[in-house]
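Example (one chain per record):
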Amino acid sequence: MFPFVMAGGPLFFVFQLVDSAVQLFFTIYSIITLSDIECDYINAQECCKRLNQFVLPELITHTVFTSLFLFFGHWLLFVLNLPLVIWHIVRFQKVSKGRLGVYDPTEIHNRANLRQFQREVYAKLGFHLITFFIYIYCLIVALVGMATD
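Predicted structure:
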């Protein structure tokens, strides 16, 4: 019926769904933290510490699960996730020496940088919401495919 969904089975899409939910949590947490720094509820050092602790885990989990799409032959889903993986890698590698991480306390107070960070997080929120529902659809199709076999 839908051959791009069958490889890997429903368990694969359950793991993808859990990963997508975790990525959504990271993104919503980032939105809340950036809103807090914008309203001066927390200082820049604390904000950057909170945000930077999720950068590497987010990069690793998204890269691993995108690689699994390639491994199981889900080309369409792999191509859908690849731009965000490349963006994560480039963003992580652009961190210069002397900075504390992707989010730096000396730069986050600049209004243009803060707006850029917020736009990035909102774009990731949209991406993760869309992929969350795509994974739910793929899980349902895989379960229906198992029931008809």
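Caption: Residues 1-5 have pLDDT under 50 and may be disordered.
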